[in-house]
């Protein structure tokens, strides 16, 4: 698990084995069963998860019990609640869709690790900027894109998830009904697009 995280970091920054050993002491590994809730609304979180195997999701449930999926986190993705990391109770659930192994990263990891490996500060800034860009694009897609455009964007972002998650979860992420998603998939199949 640590080797996978080391390789993830090495694709983004230059880091030696010795440096990695120095900054990995506070990281824990945890394996969760399928459907394990790891964060619930109202809780505070001091950690983020880096998925090494399996699949997690972040979602809310509205007053009508409708599930609104915010993010999926397959292998080599991060998942957590930024508000909760800054001492606000979370509004979200985070759970596992598959049996999942994740690294548990403490709240101040990049700040503290950056003392020993300064390039991690820049990596953290890049990751935060990418997260903001991702959310801005997602909001824009939800507000202005067609269901087909949203689905095609989903496939581009999560190329291996269409076979790993139920259709209703994809529809929830896209902000459409499962019936609408079925129509989109049928239309794309008629256009000879692999769905």
TrEMBL record:
<feature type="domain" description="Cyclic nucleotide-binding">
    <location>
        <begin position="15"/>
        <end position="112"/>
    </location>
</feature>
<dbReference type="InterPro" id="IPR018490">
    <property type="entry name" value="cNMP-bd_dom_sf"/>
</dbReference>
<protein>
    <submittedName>
        <fullName>CRP-like cAMP-binding protein</fullName>
    </submittedName>
</protein>
<dbReference type="InterPro" id="IPR014710">
    <property type="entry name" value="RmlC-like_jellyroll"/>
</dbReference>
<dbReference type="InterPro" id="IPR000595">
    <property type="entry name" value="cNMP-bd_dom"/>
</dbReference>
<dbReference type="Pfam" id="PF00027">
    <property type="entry name" value="cNMP_binding"/>
</dbReference>
């Amino acid at each position: 698990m640590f080797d996978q995280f080391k390789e993830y970091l090495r694709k983004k920054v230059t880091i030696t084995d010795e440096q990695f050993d120095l900054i990995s002491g506070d990281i824990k590994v945890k394996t969760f069963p399928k459907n394990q809730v790891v964060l619930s609304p109202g809780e505070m979180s001091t950690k983020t998860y880096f998925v090494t195997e399996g699949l997690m999701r972040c979602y809310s449930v509205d007053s009508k019990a409708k599930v609104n999926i915010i993010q999926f986190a397959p292998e080599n993705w991060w998942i957590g609640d930024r508000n909760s990391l800054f001492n606000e109770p979370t509004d979200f659930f985070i759970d596992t869709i598959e049996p999942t192994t994740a690294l548990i990263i403490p709240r101040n990891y990049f700040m503290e690790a950056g003392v020993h490996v300064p390039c991690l500060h820049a990596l953290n800034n890049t990751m935060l900027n990418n997260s903001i860009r991702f959310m801005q694009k997602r909001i824009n897609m939800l507000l202005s894109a067609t269901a087909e455009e949203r689905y095609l964007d989903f496939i581009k972002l999560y190329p291996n998830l269409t076979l790993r998650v139920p259709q209703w979860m994809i529809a929830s992420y896209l902000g459409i009904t499962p019936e609408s998603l079925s129509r989109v998939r049928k239309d794309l199949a008629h256009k000879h697009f692999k769905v």
